[in-house]
User: Fold these one by one.
Assistant:
Number 1:
Amino acid sequence: MQKQYLRLAKVEGPLIMLEGVDDVSYDEILQIDLSDGQKRRAKVVRIQGNKIIAQVFEGTSGISTTNAVVTFTGKMLEVPLSKQILGRTFNGVGEPMDGAGPIVSDKKYDINGRPMNPVARMYPKDYLETGISSIDTLTTLIRGQKLPIFSANGLPHNQLAAQIVRQAKLKNSDEKFAVVFAGMGIKHDDYDFFKKEFEQSGASSRVVSYINLADAPIVERISTPRTALTAAEYLAFEEDMHILVVMTDITSYAEALRELSSAKEEVPSRKGYPGYLYSDLSTLYERAGMIKGKKGSITMIPILTMPNDDITHPIPDLTGFITEGQIVLSRQLFQKNVYPDVDILPSLSRLMKDGIGDGFTRDDHENVQLQLFALYSKVIDVRSLSQIIGEDDLSDTDRIYMEFGRQFEEKFLKQGAYEARTIEQSLDIAWDLFKLFPKTELDRLEDKLVTKYGRW
């Protein structure tokens, strides 16, 4: 028989507190029955001896210490899953938002998942094409990788996320591929944007969305990425599909953690965030990967907005430690009307070296990537010099670099929001740009590749 509690010790903000509680688990779900017939759910977020603190999913409005009966279910938050989730939209705790009815399945899964055994992990190698030149060529996404996008307020990261969802595919493969999209704290107009983009592009049939709106409770926001990742694990490791998980915005998630931590009166760490922010983020990011003996995979692109454009802020800082690289968006390029505004110099993909080249993309990929980085880094130096002495006083070679910088941003980095380029097209654009230079400046290209692809 389940034990019921007829009186709350305290109601504060989104939290309720009970005393005299025993045999309870962290993250356990509570059923709350109000005297007016309403039913709500809560999740245990703190245990102190015989006292517990729980956060109510629907908020505590209308709850007092005497009008609620609390029952402990003995279960964590679970969601029913089947292949019918593809093409559907749910809220952050797995409840349908699209009016198509609930998912009927005998299988229910704990959203907290299980840690992936490091020994069982497979090393990611296969290339995943996004159709975006700056990503595919210079910060290549590898299947099974965690590659975050560092953006900032006002930059078009939502547009970029939608483009990646529309265009992402496995290169030269007929294997089953799908996208899990998790939106945390997004505005209603952003939700409408994503919904319309997926429907109009025809990608909606292979996308399952978990949406937490900005006016939804923060406990749902904290559950959203876990619910989405649980769905991704089901599709990848039980249905043998290759899954791309796109999550936006991790900053909204971290701020929900901070709000919850403050309500629990925990001692804050850097900038008010809880001291366990690193370990909490790792429980999300480390659920991506490939497992030996399993055909499917989970590739992750978390998107976060850097407060005050500060890449040393705790959220991007800790994310960079856990993930395998980053794609950094540039406000300066955005102001030049360059989309996607990827700042290639601080961007990197730590796993790309083993997933590019002959047999994966094209034999010249690594050389082209190294040469583009070398040339563009020199462009930045020459631009700094021109601001001091003026462009007219630059040497002839420096003027070539200035022209290369302009054309590189206009022809290579810049592309349409609905323009999908193959890796071959992106590499060919790079070779066309190399024609601006004498061969002596192109010291990262092997002679055999210059002979094969050069167009001098």
Number 2:
Amino acid sequence: MQVAIPLFPRFTALDAIGPYEVLQRIPDVEVIFVGHRRGEVRADNGMLGVLCDAQFNELTAPDVLVVPGGVGTRTLLDDAELLDWVRKAHTHTRFTASVCTGSLLLAAAGLLDGLTATTHWSAVELLEHLGARYVEQRVVEHLSQRIVTSAGVSSGIDMALRLVELLADADTACAIQLLIEYDPQPPFDCGSLTKAGEDVRRRAAQLRR
């Protein structure tokens, strides 16, 4: 089984690496980072580089597609090569998924027209402008359409564990959750807009790239 994760300049690292860490643990799964060209792609802050091992035209029929987000998605909303590849890949996938603002690319490709979906809280207006209907959930599923979207950054791990359950079974998903010791106990309870006060929101806005 092949899992394709497209990379692009200024992607958010955990959007791609979180699902990678989960999905690569399914037996007989190959996770392939793919892009416009082979070679290194730098994450949003420029400090981390990840290698693409295939170009889009070399991986046209993945079993699973996971599209990460990041500020780099904004420049790709009219990228014909990427969006055409997403559309064609989706015709073959068992599941097409997104993390964070990766849902903007699914929407720009026309895959979310009229569907509920989620994204990072800062991109809600743009997601709806692109034809989806935002809902404030960590993971949103449309299994008959084979589409799963997840909210900001860390929610990609939740989404990937759900994909493991769908692709394998619940026991395998639970075993992988144990292997990565994913047992969140955050020191602060402010991980969503509904929980964050004005001071936290203001500071978050200052820190956004």
Number 3:
Amino acid sequence: MDIWKSKVLPKIKLVFVKSAGKKAAAAAELVKSFDESKEGINGEFQEKKADLLPKVVEIYESAPAPLKLLIKERSKVSGIKKNSAAITKFFEELAKIEFPGAKQVSDGISKVGPVLLSGPIFSTFEKVSTLLPVAAEEATATKEAPAATEEAAAVEEKKEEAAAAAAEKKEEAEQKKEETTTPAPAAAETAPPADAAAAAAEPTAEAAPAAEAAPEAEAAAAPAAAEAEPAKAEEETPKA
């Protein structure tokens, strides 16, 4: 027992430490190589997106639920250790369809394991998530939202124009109605009333017979005046 503790166990620990150190160094090289090739990986991904989409969705659908959540969220490095077997298989499947960068990551996983390659793994998961149906629907909804807003604004504008036109027509109809019901202007007011015209005509009618009778009266009075003058003259002559 003392030999185990004093000689065997320390040697085993030393082997693991050396092994861990070698893995860490190898992992660092793999991460550096992946980062340097990111630009080429991104360009290749953009070119092959349309062809990759149905294949990636099929691989994703066959993955276990915890791995699906990790692919979408990509927030916990501890999730890589918990799902190391599923991640290893997932990258093997991606490498088969020639997903950009997947072969490089898959080879690295086989050498140092997935835990030390969290950066390349999450970078690949991010590209995978853009091809999933939910992400595609969200992108479509984002594009359609401004169009829907513009359409709603156009509909609202048409409603306002229709309401304004209806109000204008209503106002015109009311004006026409007022014009038809308003009495004719003051021609009737300026004309003298019928009673006044009759009253004005009556004195003229009465004056006409009077004017006609005046010469007759004068003619009748003239002989009488002539007869009266000799009689007066006789009275004024003195008796002898």
Number 4:
Amino acid sequence: MQSVRIAGVGSTAFGVYPGRTGRDLFAEAVRVAIADSGVPRTDIDRLCYGNFVGTVAERQGHQGPLMAEAAGMNGPATRYESACASGGVALRGGVEAVRAGTADVVLVGGMERMNNLSTDQVTAGLAMAADDLYERRAGVTFPGAYALMARAYLDEFGGSREDLAAVAVKNHDHALDNDYAQFQQEITVTDVIDAPTVADPLGLYDACPLTDGASAVVLVSERYAERHNVNAPIAIAGSGQGTDTLALQDRSSFVRTPATERAASDAYADADITPDAVDLLEVHDCFTIAEVLALEGLGLYDTGTALTAAAEGETTADGELPVNLSGGLKAKGHPVGATGVSQVVELSKLLRGDHVNSDAVDDASVAVAHNAGGTVASAVVHVLEVTQ
């Protein structure tokens, strides 16, 4: 089985681009990733591409070949869809292809463009990731669904709105100097508490924004890297994917995320590590409560104990376990299909030492990316390791 290396990474700045097309955004991210890799475009064997609402937002299906054309390649191209985990699933597809020996160079990417739609239209599009029969038709949106999860957590384990607010404050702090982040804006706990309520107990600053953007990663086999003298010091050492029921009502608990637990268990076993080996993470914080649930699902905190991690400084840049040094979905932004790939872009730079926040983790060697779909009905976890 071939070892999978990250040869190059690239991303657009995340933000609001109603005047740009998805193919244009993706082409930009690919140009950066290929230039970073030093791999000839003609050596790319295939494209694994993540996107969720493009059929709604741009009325564009069949995006695999379209994005291959935008990337300047003509090999096999496949679009992966798993709601907000689309990018992570695309990455897993690329990892599996390299490991199997069916490809030596895989371009993995993702893109989403949503700000050309109204808020109501985007909300309706994203709601397609929920159960249509039992949730969507009843008027459940994702802010409402995550509010139910947050309320259940606070009821069962205690804690405060201030604890949740600290997650948002931390991630905004991490994004302050990240030029790729949608919000380079400092906020306070008071700002979060005083913001308009979206779905009690979650307010405006507890939620990630609507974001346009694209990210790309060039994966190569260890064999290819050695033969072509490609500098690829980061390996994807572990990969795992998990699934849960689509509707919240069918779950035995609102305060655990079994899909994350399964994905993490498989990824750690694949990489032959335990959670104790992890130095830093990018986790799927679409809402502040989602970061808390992710840390517990990943086995880094016991159930019911991660709520205070940000407030107590454990997951800040200078904490014991830095989380979302990019700013996370909360501040960097959440262009849905690109998010899972973007997490790996950020972690690769952090581990290589060329990220604006690399000084916070200059001795880190193991990182984890956690990407989730819906109310964590889908989860993908990847373990990155420095190899040299």
